[in-house]
Amino acid sequence: FFYHPHPATPHAQESRGLGDVYKRQAIGPAANWVGKQWRGDRFAALAQRLVAEDGPYPGGRIAVFAAASERNQADPVLTALPKERVLDLVGVGDLAAVGGYLRRCTFFVGNDSGLMHMAAAAGIPTLGLFGPSKTEHYAPWGENCAFVRTPESYDELVGAPGYDHRTTGTLMDGLSVDAVMAACKSLAA
User: Fold this and answer.
1) In 10 A of CB 56, how many CB atoms?
2) 14: burial class by Cβ within 10 Å (0-12, 13-18, 19+)?
3) What does the pLDDT look like over 60-70, one tens digit per residue?
4) How far apart (Å, rounded) are the C-alpha atoms in residues 131 and 35?
5) Angle formed at CA 138 by CA 132 and CA 139, multiple of 5 degrees
6) How far apart are CA 90 and CA 59, in angstroms?
7) Residue 63 contacts residue 51 (beta carbons within 8 Å)
8) 8 A C-beta contact, residue 73 and residue 66
9) CB-based contact 12:19 (threshold 8 Å)
10) Among 11, 52, 117, 131, which one has the highest count of C-beta atoms within 10 angstroms of its own C-beta?
11) Lowest mean pLDDT among 22-26, 122-126, 170-174
């Protein structure tokens, strides 16, 4: 069962200057623990390539989603593009509002997170980034959904000496910008 949230009310969008959220590509650079987070600078590089003239969304505009407490993970993406090409939706509101904004986007790429599942439920093409979580349990589900994972398997990542999800840093460094970009192009085609 997937929840399909109702879009936010038009007056709420206009009051935040979000009426232009349509035709944006969404990026979700955060996750519930750091081990599952692809680095912010890699999301920034990906965002630039997605909207470049030779990218899958030439001239596009990026909507960046995260909770207010996750701003540090979103900031590299927010500053990587000219101000008119990026929309800051960090801490934008409750889940219904976030779902409404996601439904107005044309594509989503982000870490394995609740936001990734919301994007899939909203019916937009969704690419999930995976490392220390099992794709057979947590990959986005739907007709226009895909995932790309680190070259290291789940077992290799979580079975490493000293692994503790509470204290281990990111385990996503094996996943290159090139690999994610190739998966984005494949899903966008």
Assistant:
1) 18
2) exposed
3) 999 999 999 99
4) 8
5) 100
6) 22
7) no
8) yes
9) no
10) 131
11) 22-26
Higher pLDDT, 151 or 160: 151
Gap between the Cα atoms of 129 and 124, Å rounded: 16
Cross-strand pairs, 107: 25
Burial class (CB in 10 A: 0-12, 13-18, 19+), 179: middle
- C-alpha atoms less than 13 angstroms from C-alpha of 140 in its C-beta half-sphere: 32
Where in 2-158 does DSSP place strands (E)?
24-28, 61-66, 86-90, 105-111, 126-130, 145-149
Per-residue pLDDT tens digits for 44-92: 999 999 999 999 999 999 999 999 999 999 999 999 999 999 999 999 8
Nearest 10 degrees: Cα torsion 152, 38, 80, 66: 150
Per-residue pLDDT at 161: 87
pLDDT higher than threshold 70 for residue 97: yes
Residues 107/25, Cβ–Cβ less than 8 Å = yes
Tokens found for residue 113 = 């997170």
> Side chain identity at 149, as an amino acid letter?
R
| b/e burial code for range 105-135 (CB count within 10 A of at least 16 → b) | bebbbbbbbebbbbbbbbebbbbbbbbbbee
Tallying the residues shown for the chain, one arrives at 189
